[in-house]
Design brief:
183 residues; alpha/beta; Rossmann fold; 53% helix
Length: 183
């Protein structure tokens, strides 16, 4: 089983992914963007003005996400293709990342019967500074959310929305969906 949590930043994806990892004993792929920033010793708020660095960063994040997912037969991921929304918003290389040779097999993996995509929608109650982003901006969160929804629909991916902030209700949605999995 492959479980993906997608959506904008500061929506609670990590909390949901940790829950699934613990309950279903799945290895967790943490958000690779933070690892890339740390390895390069870059700060996100300082990165925005250097478009060459932004392009390097966004490409590395997307490629690393795909690579990390190939390491496991089953996992829960705190991201997925939604990194493309950030590449579209902040970099110049979206056409390169959208190369059909790279993207087609990745999208097919997301469409596999054992793949479950949870689209965690934004709500103002979950917005909080995470120590990485320079500021939490509601309009920015909504813009990323809209791009993620566009990609889900464009690629005709099966997904399950989590449109509520209450963790108990989020867990109920997640458990109900994952109970449908037949190994």
């Amino acid at each position: 089983m492959k479980v993906y949590f997608v959506g904008a930043h500061s929506t609670g994806k990590t909390t949901c992914a940790r829950y699934v990892s613990d309950k279903y004993k799945l290895p967790m792929i943490t958000e690779v963007a933070r690892a890339v920033l740390s390895e390069k010793e870059w700060q996100l708020d300082n990165l925005r003005h250097d478009m060459d660095k932004v392009d390097i960063y966004q490409k590395e994040v997307f490629m690393r996400q795909m690579y990390e997912e190939t390491k496991y037969a089953s996992f829960v991921s705190d991201r997925s293709f939604d990194g493309l929304a950030y590449a579209a918003q902040h970099s110049r290389l979206l056409p390169t990342l959208m190369d059909p040779g790279t993207l087609t097999s990745y999208i097919n993996n997301l469409k596999a019967p054992d793949s479950f995509i949870f689209f965690v929608r934004p709500c103002k109650a979950t917005l909080k500074a995470d120590g990485v982003r320079e500021a939490i901006n509601w309009d920015g969160v909504v813009a990323i959310d809209a791009m993620v929804k566009f990609m889900l629909q464009m690629w005709e991916l099966r997904y399950f929305q989590i449109p509520i902030e209450n963790m108990q209700e989020r867990i109920q949605i997640i458990d109900n969906v994952l109970s449908l999995h037949k190994p």
